Automatic annotation (TrEMBL):
GO CC annotations, alphabetized: plasma membrane
PLD phosphodiesterase domain segment(s): 263-290, 437-464
Catalytic activity, EC: 2.7.8.-
Catalytic activity from the UniProt record: 2 a 1,2-diacyl-sn-glycero-3-phospho-(1'-sn-glycerol) = a cardiolipin + glycerol
Protein's recorded name: Cardiolipin synthase A
Entry-linked Pfam families: PLDc_2
Gene3D superfamilies assigned to the protein according to its UniProt record, in alphabetical order: Endonuclease Chain A (3.30.870.10)
Membrane topology: Multi-pass membrane protein
PROSITE patterns per the UniProt record, alphabetical: PLD (PS50035)
Length: 524
């Protein structure tokens, strides 16, 4: 619609003027203003400020990029619901959704995928020496039929299930870090240290001192930490290690221009390898809270394992891929010489957003589906996807004793409320959900019947399924499974089972909060 300004009646048409009192000069001025106002207010004016023109061009560009991003979302987002939601919002409101999509929306990031695709073949060719290949072929386990959970994992992970390992449970922080520091002290050749979080507190400084002492002794040390997880780590901590001869690299998924906004992917793995002979994997990061010394979450409940044997070489190879991405160099790896007599098969499950399929989610589905008598899971965050939730329901229908242990105290409130709602839904499906009372539960453990157990860094949530790089070790051994069962029985003894009617008794406001938190499940 063309807007025009109303002319004064004195000059709207022919006839005598309505205001004869105006002088000729005033009349000419009024006529000039009236004619100028008759022009369209929204017509193009060459004198329009350049800032307005630039802003309009910017908005046009944003909308064009939004359309392109919507097409990208349709092609890459793994669920139809997510693809539709992103596409509609990117087309209609790109000013508000383009940046969040760059941060949260993409399921993979360029660069790391390319590095794995084009460089991993070369990396494995370099790292897998003849001795390594012979050991790998010799110790590749023929998985027994009773270990049903191990059947698909070698093909899923691209790593063989290896025999002749010895695995020891390390319950809680004190036992875990005493074992790690003792192993570091005995290191003679190569040390691999990788953590998601490292704090510059008493425990973090103790780790730095231990690494510097070994570096002075001539040990080659590789120290890898996640850039986002260690955002609070001061620069002097890293510079001190580098000055002492430690090779330090941050793991960052946003290398390059395309991925500079990719902050949602994290390397959540925790791994220490000493001289290629002994490895430590689990849920502990480096900080005094993991020793259970920081209220209100204290005491902190977590689990690590110590591994000796052939599986250590697969753990080294997993680290080599991460280190190669961060440093563009292949770390020195050592073929394990220690061959335990135990006939214990271990399967390394390394997963991440660069995998061709959802390795972590499929691992949990496979573990749940293979259970026949008992399936016990402990996780700090319970936000399963549809496939995992369906597998849990089917396990209950098969008559499996399905128990899940979650915290009673939150460390992240949004995640806690979403986990609580999923727990209520699982209870209605017949799953037994328990809350750990003494402190914060952070361990990630899966027990399958009396045959197999898994310990590592993966939580039962979407972040571990699709956003984080995770590391689990599955052990097929009845004695170790019995040790895990005894540990979990002690945990369940200090837990309270959630009743079926707890959701109905919850205040309405709390229900609203839980359902609102669930909306963020894809990125939690």
């Amino acid at each position: 619609m063309r807007r025009t300004c109303r002319r004064p009646r004195a000059y709207a048409g022919a006839g005598p003027p309505l205001y004869p009192c105006l002088s000729d000069a005033a009349a000419r001025y009024v006529r000039m203003r009236a004619l100028s106002c008759a022009r369209p207010c929204f017509s193009f004016d060459p004198s329009m400020p350049t800032s307005t023109t630039a802003f309009a061009a910017f908005l046009f560009l944003v909308h064009c990029v939004g359309v392109l991003a919507a097409g990208h979302a349709v092609l890459t987002v793994r669920t139809s619901q997510g693809a539709i939601a992103w596409a509609i919002s990117l087309i209609t409101l790109p000013e508000f959704t383009l940046i969040p999509y760059l941060i949260f929306g993409r399921s993979t990031f360029a660069g790391y995928v390319d590095a794995r695709r084009f460089h991993n073949a070369r990396l494995r060719e370099i790292t897998l020496s003849d001795d390594w290949r012979r050991l790998r072929d010799h110790e590749a386990a023929v998985v027994a039929p009773q270990h049903a959970c191990m059947q698909a994992l070698p093909r899923l992970t691209g790593m063989p299930c290896l025999a002749r390992n010895r695995v020891r449970l390390l319950v809680n922080g004190a036992e875990t870090f005493e074992a790690i520091f003792a192993a570091i002290k005995d290191a003679r050749r190569v040390l691999i240290v990788q953590f998601f979080i490292v704090h510059d507190d008493a425990l973090g400084r103790r780790l730095a001192e231990a690494l510097l002492e070994r570096a002075r002794a001539g040990v080659r040390i590789y120290f890898l930490f996640d850039r986002i997880g260690c955002h609070a780590l001061p620069g002097h901590y890293v510079r001190q290690l580098e000055a002492g001869g430690v090779r330090v690299r941050p793991f960052s998924t946003h290398a390059g221009f395309v991925n500079r906004f990719q902050l949602n992917f994290r390397n959540h793995r925790k791994l220490v390898v000493v001289d290629g002979e002994r490895a430590y994997v689990g849920g502990h990061n480096v900080g005094t809270e993991y020793l259970g010394e920081q209220p209100p979450l204290a005491p902190w409940r977590d689990t690590h394992i110590e591994i000796v044997g052939a599986a250590v070489m697969e753990l080294q190879l997993t680290f080599a891929e991460d280190w190669y991405w961060a440093a563009r160099e292949v770390p020195q790896l050592i073929v394990p010489k220690v061959r335990p007599d135990e006939d214990m098969a271990c399967q390394v499950v390394a997963s991440g957003p660069a995998d061709p399929q959802e390795t972590c989610s499929l691992f949990f589905v496979e573990a749940i589906q293979s259970a026949r008598k008992r399936l016990w899971i402990t996780t700090p965050y319970f936000i399963p996807d549809e496939a995992v939730f369906a597998a849990l329901r089917l396990a209950v229908l098969r008559g499996v004793d399905v128990r899940i242990l979650i915290p009673s105290r939150p460390d992240h409130h949004v995640v806690f409320h979403a986990s609580t709602l999923y727990a209520y839904q699982a209870i209605r499906a017949g799953v037994k959900i328990y809350r750990y009372r003494p402190g914060f539960l952070h361990q990630k453990v899966v027990l399958i019947d009396d045959e197999a157990a898994a310990v590592g860094s993966a939580n039962l949530d979407n972040r571990s399924f699709r956003l984080n790089f995770e590391l689990m070790v599955v052990t097929a051994d009845t004695r170790f499974a019995n040790d895990v069962a005894q540990m979990l029985e002690a945990d369940f003894a200090e837990a309270t089972r959630i009743g079926r009617d707890e959701y109905e008794r919850a205040p309405p406001l709390r229900r609203v909060v839980m359902h609102a938190a669930k909306l963020f499940a894809p990125i939690l």
